[in-house]
Amino acid sequence: MLSTSTRLQLQKIAGRNSIRTISQLSYVNPPTHIKNEQVKPFTNTDTKDWDLLRASIMKFKSSSLEVPLVINGERIYYNNSNRSVFAQSNPACHKQVLANVTQATELDVKDAIQAAKEAKSKWYQLPFYDRAAVFLKAADLISTKYRYDMLAATMLGQGKNVYQAEIDCITELSDFFRFNVKYAHDLYNLQPVQSAQGVWNKAEYRPLEGFIYAVSPFNFTAIAANLIGAPALMGNTVIWKPSQSAALSNYLLLTVLEEAGLPKGVINFVPGDPILVTDQLLASKEFGGLHFTGSTQVFKQLYGKIQTGVVNGLYRDYPRIVGETGGKNFHLIHKSANIPNAVFSTIRGAFEFQGQKCSATSRLYIPQSKSEEFFRDLIGTLQQQKVTPVNTAASPISGGDLHGFMGPVIHEQSYNKLIKVIEEAKTDPELEIIYGGQYDKGEGWFVGPTIIKCKDPKHKFMTTEFFGPILSVYEYPDNKFSETCDLIDQTSMYGLTGSVFAKDREAINLADEKLKFSCGNFYINDKCTGAVVAQQWFGGARMSGTDDKSGGPSILNRFVSIRNTKENFVELTDFKYPSNY
Ligand SMILES: NC(=O)c1ccc[n+]([C@@H]2O[C@H](COP(=O)([O-])OP(=O)(O)OC[C@H]3O[C@@H](n4cnc5c(N)ncnc54)[C@H](O)[C@@H]3O)[C@@H](O)[C@H]2O)c1
Ligand SMILES: N[C@@H](CCC=O)C(=O)O
Questions:
Q1: What positions does the domain Aldehyde dehydrogenase occupy (predicted)?
Q2: Do residues 368 and 296 both lie within one domain?
């Protein structure tokens, strides 16, 4: 038994020497109870949950929050400075400003690069378990103390109903933080399986050199969390450009991470003009990798800029590029399908969160013999359930109807783009709007669920991502199921998600085989949205992204650079090989 003074002395030494601390902790395992966070159902009878949620919603609605830049832990506000400000408004009630978001200048971006550089070595030299603890604690804070605030910020700012907010900013977000810890631990434990006699081989998972640039989309708070969290957990420092339309929830997330112990400078928050911020960061020698989620068009631009930087010798390394982008996801209905299941799954897949998921169902293939029954049921359900909030004050958020199924689209640009699509469909003889087509911007950016039949299966409505509640449909001859699989595979440049609905196993197998490269997430008798961390690893190939699979183990590999060490215990006594004698 060590005396107290010896123990204190040893603790002091350990505190001074991080290498020693790492070695002392190398057998610590992450908690064994890591499992998916449960979705709170928010039924009518969950009155306490509703009361707490309403209180948080009222808090954010009653005054606009000042959202600063956060560089090296320091808050920087636009007031009394030359910085401009962006007003993030409530998409369900556009006159209501939720947050005044300070916009970064070129100088701020430079400061963020410096902050990320200075914070780096201390952060990656921390034992993994200390870095992991920050994210585990943040997950617990989000699923308990800040649950209602996170929900309210995501519902108000990003136009979600409570269920969509729950599966995003609570369950998926905390799942990302917790499962990444488990996956990182597993990765660090992956070591060379062979060491010859007298040799010890080791793999060391170093962070990348330089900083990671994380660019997040508006539509998932959880995605933003993973864009910053995955690289940071692996010892990288991050410069984060959030979407202007998600600044409120994203800033709240950063404050939770800080409360959980995130050191200064590890994640630097720089909202601002996307091109100004990006160009400045990509021009830096310190740029080590991109972690992006957003549209294919923007990702291609960034990819091009990085390639040019590489060719021009701008960077120290080949920067890692990890990007998840758009989709034109399909539901393929076979004549043997259970129609009610296909109908309800399609309503959810196409219209939940107003179709603003990269995974949303946006093209549907139905056998001619089943089309009438399918759409009679689907349209009947939409009408009966009053799924359309257009022209009513009963939007899920602004009018106080928090139980609604659909809400607004994110902003005016999106609204304008979608109504242009609807107007085009009204005049194109190749297209027929069989349901919906309404929109209203009186109070918020509301576009109703809309279904459009296409005569030509290669019409641009079958290939273009609209990112709204618009479903394009093609009726195929019943005896052309196999050809329809080929058609699906060849129609769009994307490869994100897709589903087949059938009871017939031969049909399922055929689709499974023929659609192997058409999507990165394939569903059988289920909607093509709603991947769950650690259960369905998420991401697509082709023009949908680099398919590094968020929510799975492989993505963490992209944020480390392995150093292999061979230590030799047997000293040489001669230079000649046996064959030289
Ligand atoms: N595959 C996935 O996992 C996934 C997940 C969510 C969203 N998405 C895709 O994201 C898109 C919707 O999100 P969005 O509207 O926020 O996308 P977006 O591409 O407009 O914006 C994404 C991010 O890029 C930034 N950005 C925009 N223009 C830029 C430019 N020229 N240079 C640098 N940065 C720029 C934005 O400010 C934002 O932070 C859809 O295409 C959707 O499919 C994909
Ligand atoms: N991972 C989510 C989609 C995120 C894209 O926006 C899903 O599977 O529905």
A1: 82-563
A2: no
ipTM for the predicted complex: 0.99
From the CA of 217, how far away is ligand 1's center (Å)?
A: 5
| Pair 459, 522 in one domain | yes
pLDDT, one tens digit per residue, over 246-283 is 999 999 999 999 999 999 999 999 999 999 999 999 99
Estimate the share of the chain in helix, then strand, then coil, as percent rounded to the nearest 5.
Answer: 45, 20, 35
HEC profile of 347-366: HHHHHHHHHCCCCCEEEEEE
Q: In this structure, what CATH number is given to the domain that contains residue 357?
A: 3.40.309.10
- The whole model's pTM is what? 0.95
Domain assignment present for 229: yes
* Cα angle value 296/298/303 (rounded, 5°): 90
Give the amino acid at 2. L
CA angle 441, 55, 177 (to 5 degrees): 90
Distance CA 502, CA 524 (A): 8
Query: CA-CA distance, 67 to 76, in Å (whole number)?
Result: 9
Catalogue the E-assigned strands of 393-518.
431-435, 439-440, 446-447, 450-454, 470-476, 494-495, 497-501
Domain with 239 in it: what CATH number? 3.40.605.10
Residues 422, 390: contact at Cβ < 8 Å? no
Judgement on whether residues 95 and 182 belong to the same structural domain of the protein: yes
User: Is 324 marked active-site?
Assistant: yes
d(CA 123, CA 131): 8
- Domains contained in the chain, number: 2
Could you tell me if residue 529 is inside a domain? yes
Residues 285 and 430 in one domain: no
**Residue 52 near residue 404, CB atoms below 8 Å:** no
Q: Which domain holds residue 387?
A: 330-534
Diameter of the chain by CA atoms? 94
Atom of ligand 2 nearest to the CA of 538: 1
Q: Which ligand is nearest to the CA of 537?
A: 2
* Residues 374 and 441 grouped into a single domain: yes
Q: List pLDDT tens digits, range 30-87.
A: 898 899 999 999 998 889 999 999 899 989 988 999 999 999 999 999 988 899 999 9
Question: Are 448 and 420 a contacting pair, CB within 8 Å?
Answer: no
State the amino acid at position 39 in one-letter form. Answer: V
Q: Are residues 283 and 342 in the same domain?
A: no
Which residue type sits at 501? F
| 307 Cβ neighbours under 8 A, 6+ residues apart | none
Taking CB atoms and a 6 Å cutoff, what residues make up the pocket around ligand 1? 215-220, 223, 241, 243, 274-275, 278, 293-295, 298, 301-302, 324-327, 358, 465, 467, 496, 544-545
Q: Where are the beta strands (DSSP E) in 503-559?
A: 521-524, 541-542
Distance CA 224, CA 252 (A): 12
- CB of 348 within 6 A of ligand 2: the answer is no
Query: Cα separation of 518 and 493, whole Å?
Result: 9
